[in-house]
Amino acid sequence: MSLFQHPVRIYWEDTDAGGIVFYANYLKFFERARTEWLRSLVELGQEQMKQELGAMFVVSETAVRYLSPARLDDLLQVSVEVKEAGRVSMTLFQRAMLNGTVLAEGTIRIGCVSPANLKPVRIPAPILQALQNKSP
Amino acid sequence: MSLFQHPVRIYWEDTDAGGIVFYANYLKFFERARTEWLRSLVELGQEQMKQELGAMFVVSETAVRYLSPARLDDLLQVSVEVKEAGRVSMTLFQRAMLNGTVLAEGTIRIGCVSPANLKPVRIPAPILQALQNKSP
Amino acid sequence: MSLFQHPVRIYWEDTDAGGIVFYANYLKFFERARTEWLRSLVELGQEQMKQELGAMFVVSETAVRYLSPARLDDLLQVSVEVKEAGRVSMTLFQRAMLNGTVLAEGTIRIGCVSPANLKPVRIPAPILQALQNKSP
Amino acid sequence: MSLFQHPVRIYWEDTDAGGIVFYANYLKFFERARTEWLRSLVELGQEQMKQELGAMFVVSETAVRYLSPARLDDLLQVSVEVKEAGRVSMTLFQRAMLNGTVLAEGTIRIGCVSPANLKPVRIPAPILQALQNKSP
Hints:
Helices cover 26% and strands 38% of the residues of chain A. Chain A has 136 residues and is of the alpha+beta class. Chain A has one domain: Thiol Ester Dehydrase, Chain A (Roll), CATH 3.10.129. Strand 2 (56-66) of chain A pairs antiparallel with strand 2 (56-66) of chain D.
């Protein structure tokens, strides 16, 4: 089973006065990769999922280690792996790599909620099925 | 009539690898100042305005000159002045200053729309009245 | 002469509580497109330009109109056109389009400065030459 | 010993299309609070520390739980507590609260590095001393 990877280019907006990528931005890079990964699994956008299926993913927990800095113009590869997939939540392991070096990695826990009241709802069936196929 | 000013402290998140504040962030600083200015005029939050009055401000045009750089830890003062106030839109002049030096300045045009369909609606009466009192 | 375009996907990070893209983010999208456009002209990254050529581009003026909203999952095309190229600055016209509709457009004025003291310096020769070939 | 708290107002820039604060932004709020907390301890800005003392703090690890959503106009209180302070790094516990409810909380691990090469250096003496006075 091949590892899902999404390319992320570093622009001025991503850096800070330390001359490197502002650490909080890795959470954005991870999310971009998750979104494209989800699209690759079920051809479903987040907006469509919200409007048509009444379900929205929200991040409930993040644990990230920032190991090595990225700089302007770097082209990162951001991976997504399912660690655990339940009926209303999932846990993913994600990494941002540059030329084989891990820059940042961590686990992201995500819940599925109703856009109307933010209460937990079941992950839509086609997504859940795809997730479970990807689980270890 | 005194000039409305709102303090904005510069943090790492605001800077880029050039060692200075990322220019796009002045639009955020201007908006923070507008929000506090509006609150000072009518004691009304944006969320409350959206939920209770069915009106939401959207920015339709920005013209900004970036004159001098701000750096980490700087404490800016951001001003708001009404240039023109109509029934469905207004134009403001805003400045970010540091110790008497203008860092960035420009005009921001804002429309009032329905949150439901983003169509123009009249600026809620108490706000419009306060705006017109502030117009030149 | 073909128009340079760069794709920009809309993610959660780009949106706000109005359900649409936060207007200030178009400045980021425009910059991503400019960076890739510059790379396409001279195969030179911004970091490399800063380190090796002692030159850095800074934005000195932006005038943008926000015409139509973008939403989660939209795939924009962002264009770059040279309006004017001088020895220490240039003016570009940029547009963000979605399926043939203009969402935002405007002019961006950019100066070339020394990273050390932020004083104006000449645009590096290979870039200037490429720019002048693209000027109207 | 009183708990350090820093107020953070929620603006449009902080929210996303889910109508709530974008989770990655809590890392920004935590950092603003840490910066003001540090300033309260030693009257030293981050830029000054970088320029004069050749030391810069970088975040090496973050573990955050997002428990309850914040919305436009909310006024959060963000706290900072020292969990552990060593010679080249420290671990802090931080919370974002709204009217007595915890919205997000977690631990942030921070290293002290040289701005020149990003290698670990000792935390400047006046800061280290102040930190150790605050440790449990």
